[in-house]
UniProtKB/TrEMBL annotation:
Involved in the post-translational conjugation of arginine to the N-terminal aspartate or glutamate of a protein. This arginylation is required for degradation of the protein via the ubiquitin pathway. Residues 311-453 form the N-end rule aminoacyl transferase C-terminal domain. This is Arginyl-tRNA--protein transferase. Belongs to the R-transferase family. SUPFAM superfamilies: Acyl-CoA N-acyltransferases (Nat) (SSF55729). It catalyses: an N-terminal L-alpha-aminoacyl-[protein] + L-arginyl-tRNA(Arg) = an N-terminal L-arginyl-L-aminoacyl-[protein] + tRNA(Arg) + H(+). Residues 503-529 are annotated as: Disordered. InterPro entries: Acyl_CoA_acyltransferase (IPR016181), Arg-tRNA-P_Trfase_1_euk (IPR017137), N-end_Aminoacyl_Trfase (IPR030700), N-end_Aminoacyl_Trfase_C (IPR007472), N-end_Aminoacyl_Trfase_N (IPR007471). Its EC number is 2.3.2.8. The gene is ATE1. One of its GO terms (biological process) is proteasomal protein catabolic process. The keyword Acyltransferase applies.
Amino acid sequence: MADKKKIKSEASSSTSTIENVKSESVVVDVGRRRSSCGYCKSGSDTSITHGLWAHSLTVYDYQALLDRGWRRSGCFLYKPEMEKTCCPSYTIRLKATDFVPSKEQVRVSKRMQRFLDGSLNIKNSDEHKGPSSASSVQKDIIADNVHSNNVDQKIVYLSDQINSGVLTCVEQGKFPSEIQFPKASVKSVAPNKRKLQAGEAQDLVYTSNISFQIVAALRRVQKNVGTENDPKVVAEMLSNGLTNSALAIGLSVKACNGHINFYSTETQIQADATVGRPAISHGSSSNNPEKFQVKRQNLEIRLKRSTFDREEYELYRKYQIKVHNDTPDHVTESSYKRFLIDSPLIFVQPNGDSTVPSCGFGSFHQQYLVNGKLIAVGVIDILPKCLSSKYLFWDPDLAFLSLGKYSALQEINWVKESQRQCPSLQYYYLGYYIHSCNKMRYKAAYRPSELLCPLRYEWVSFDIAKRLLDRKPYVVLSDFATLQNEVDLLPDAIEDQIEQEYESNDIRVDGDEEMSEGAFEDSDDDDDESLVLPESLSLTPTEMRKDVSNIVIGLRGMHLKYKDIRQAFGAKERNYLESQLDKYMTAVGTDLSERMIYSVG
């Protein structure tokens, strides 16, 4: 197991063999890169970052890099040059034990619980799309929830399906779009009023007269009376699109004299009717739970090492195409592996004491499964001080569950629980916060959060930082003394404002952050891993350079301190290399530059 003392000892050694690479951080500095910005969509190369390729990286060194504003995409590490880039990105974190869930976050947890216990009614709302636009997978899951003999749930479900059919008719031009049509009302049919239809052995249990209401609305605005103004025709049109939805909950559907009727296909209901017992009774699901039980969903959360999994990849592909509008040929196995599977982090085994959690340190995938079906995957790094959230992909058919928010709450709770075993593990890192980009501001809803000062690398309360960031995008956040006395902290007001303005289903880095790696790869600048020294190099003065003598250089299979090999270079090569090492030390800090291996070939 690699620990801090061992890493420091090895990195400070003047020479070592390449065989020790697996216990050390080995990086290649690719320097500054410019690319187009995925946030402000500037259209030019306004995003400026410093990049590193990591052959290997200890979790201790990556933790230190995070605390200097770095982040990884696969094996690629990048850090915005905050004073120059178009959209300054501030590292954001919160202390898990201090976390106070907002009203919306509490609602997300309760919504998931209702979904799992079978009591969630899926309705059209501002928060999610209802069955009117649901895919077949989503309808199957919804149908599973209402398949029990719960009258209220079935009525809501059937009403939503009819409303969906009306919208489809409008979209297809069968109904005029300028008319506000009434919402469907489905009613249960009392047992003593049910009639067996001629030639059918099915029992009528629900009915709707929406067709008459639609025709009345049409006749109020249309002078010419057509076939669509006949309730029988409208009922037939709508019922044709309800067959699968009805069958999903044990019913069949048929148009009858302008009514849309739903019949039971279950033998138990027929038997109850035959012996005179009520087949369905309001309130029975709660008054007689032994007879009427809601189907419950089983949620399982698994934590696994970062490896390729076919089911995960298929879910990722579906998510990228439907949510981020990627083209199918763009979402390949190789791009997926490079982005979310490949990791330079050296896994640290649990050691049975309080320094490492039971899962170990490294890169992981947290899977969310309902009834054994994969519905979401959180890509995370577990480090000595934190759980760092990298990305989340989820089933678009379950958008109504706000899985991004729900998974973030689960990860925060995981940190709380893990801290009991590993006291150093205290924080939840949410990636980058970009105040100038509205779609990234939702991360501030996880309170109380802190932002990293881009100059002094001190953590500053978001409530204070926001006052500064409201003035300009780039701020030295630790310069908050002038605001400290005037900040009026109103947690409830701030919380409500954030929720109203910055609602989002995701807590992870935005999909556009995947572009960071590609932007570096496609850069016209030289990013070869070997040290290339041009023959004619315009040298710059060396004044004000840092002392780079203790930086460990990886060269020809050996690890050597720069001061021990300095004389091996000519004047031009030495000046060039020292200028590069100076920029590298500025980017990663003195401690890390003297601990990690700077590879030049």
